């Protein structure tokens, strides 16, 4: 009785507390109550199919074993997974708005007049009337504008400073070089303590020279001065003095002869200008033939910087423009000058133009053949309409900017550019003062809206149709 009561209680509880088994007093073992209830329940169900015990994609209509000898697991009706939830339906059209066409969900230049799926199974997005404009603008959602860091700046009038840099060397001013050479056969009697590189002053003695031609002309001139013959003496004397001048006798020597009435044996030659002795060929006792260069003196208070300007920058330079020259030998020091001459010839090998810059050199710091770098200031005081360099999208054949129309709308607009400098570029056509242009993340907007195709469609005055709009890169991007 106790056994029957326990069985009744266990069945009433659904077998939840059923023991694993029970032995009758006669020694006969009763089956486990849990197994009894499970077998009874299993008998009432019929497996739908059997699946692989390891989870492999293998099924069987009847009992079966896998390669390891394990039984396939039965799958019953209640074990079958629930049906997949219905897939999201394609974006339903708003009945109150007219659909113009359907665009590619990934932003590709592809449209369809009817609902369609892309190769990845994504539904094309409907574009309603009013969302698509014919003015070539591109729309971005506020969230996308914030994430991409779009920044705008108004176009303003400003002076464009174009810095032209060119390398060059220091050369002597050709107008400040003097050569001392004899005009008649002469002999160098004595040379002053002057050597190559010595700085001399105008009138400083350089050498004493004896010349028979000079001595003869001096004696003749003194004879005319001492003569008491009247009539034609003054004219004859002027001719004798001119002969001395033709022999390049220094004026102080002629004046001294007129005062002393004595012809000197040797004539003292002096420096004709302040400067540096670049060349000394005179040697004591040497014979100097007419035309032989004995001394070469140059004034270095003003020097030239000969720089080579690239051919592309030739239109930005002009005579009189200020130039800042920096010598590689003096770090941190600059020399101010102006363009004096622009040579009228282009070097066919280097495609450069020689430009001459005059520089003051009072302390003689700039030496001939010294390397320098010139920075030519080509700033024009006349303000022009300019935008930042970063706002220009340059495809090579055309240039464009993105005009910020407000409310997330951006209009690609083709512009004509001028000079560049100081981080700004001149806009000669296509933009008005005060219009805001995108200066940051404009390339991201370009990628988002297929700007190149938009410019093409904007330039071609084609018919307004969905196919044409799909290639113009316009559409709502959120």
From TrEMBL:
Q: Which UniProt keywords apply?
A: Transport
Q: Which residues form the CusB-like beta-barrel domain?
A: 303-378
Q: Which domain of life is it from?
A: Bacteria
Q: Where is the CusB-like barrel-sandwich hybrid domain?
A: 178-298
Q: Does the keyword Phosphoprotein apply?
A: no
The residues covered by the CzcB-like C-terminal circularly permuted SH3-like domain are 385-445
Has the keyword Transport been applied to this entry? yes
Region Disordered: start and end of each range?
130-153
Q: Which family does it belong to?
A: Belongs to the membrane fusion protein (MFP) (TC 8.A.1) family.
Give the protein's recorded name. Answer: Efflux RND transporter periplasmic adaptor subunit
């Amino acid at each position: 009785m106790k056994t029957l009561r326990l069985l009744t209680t266990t069945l009433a509880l659904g077998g939840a507390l059923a023991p694993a088994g029970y032995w009758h007093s006669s020694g006969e073992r009763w089956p486990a109550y849990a197994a009894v209830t499970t077998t009874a329940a299993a008998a009432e169900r019929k497996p739908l199919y059997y699946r692989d015990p390891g989870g492999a994609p293998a099924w069987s209509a009847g009992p079966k074993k896998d390669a390891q000898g394990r039984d396939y697991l039965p799958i019953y009706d209640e074990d079958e997974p629930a049906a997949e939830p219905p897939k999201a339906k394609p974006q339903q059209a708003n009945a109150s708005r007219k659909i113009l066409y359907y665009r590619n969900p990934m932003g590709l230049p592809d449209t369809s007049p009817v609902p369609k799926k892309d190769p990845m199974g994504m539904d094309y997005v409907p574009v309603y009337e009013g969302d698509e404009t014919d003015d070539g603008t591109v729309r971005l959602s506020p969230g996308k504008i914030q994430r991409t860091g779009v920044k705008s700046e108004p176009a303003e009038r400003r002076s464009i400073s174009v810095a032209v840099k060119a390398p060059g060397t220091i050369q002597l001013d050709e107008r400040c070089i003097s050569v001392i050479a004899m005009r008649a056969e002469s002999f160098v009697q004595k040379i002053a303590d002057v050597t190559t590189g010595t700085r001399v002053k105008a009138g400083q003695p350089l050498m004493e020279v004896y010349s028979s031609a000079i001595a003869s002309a001096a004696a003749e001139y003194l004879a005319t001065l001492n003569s008491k013959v009247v009539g034609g003496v003054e004219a004859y004397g002027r001719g004798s003095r001119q002969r001395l001048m033709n022999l390049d006798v220094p004026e102080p020597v002629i004046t001294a002869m007129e005062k002393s009435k004595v012809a000197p044996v040797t004539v003292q030659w002096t420096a004709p200008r302040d400067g540096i002795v670049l060349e000394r060929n005179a040697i004591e006792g040497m014979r100097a033939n007419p035309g032989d260069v004995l001394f070469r003196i140059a004034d270095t208070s003003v020097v030239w910087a000969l720089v080579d300007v690239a051919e592309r920058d030739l239109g930005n330079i002009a005579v009189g423009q200020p130039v800042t020259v920096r010598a590689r030998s003096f770090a941190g020091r600059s020399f101010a000058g102006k363009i004096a001459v622009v040579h009228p010839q282009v070097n066919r090998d280097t495609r450069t133009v020689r430009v001459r810059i005059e520089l003051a050199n009072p302390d003689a710091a700039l030496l001939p053949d010294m390397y320098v770098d010139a920075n030519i200031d080509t700033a024009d005081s006349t303000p022009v309409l300019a935008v930042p360099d970063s706002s220009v999208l340059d495809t090579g054949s055309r240039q464009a900017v993105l005009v910020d129309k407000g409310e997330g709308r951006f209009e690609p607009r083709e512009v004509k550019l001028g000079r560049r400098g100081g981080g700004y570029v001149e806009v000669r056509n296509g933009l008005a003062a005060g219009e805001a242009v995108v200066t940051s993340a404009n390339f991201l907007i370009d990628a988002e809206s297929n700007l190149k195709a938009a410019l093409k469609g904007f330039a071609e005055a084609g018919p307004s149709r969905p196919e044409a709009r799909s290639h113009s890169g316009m559409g709502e991007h959120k």
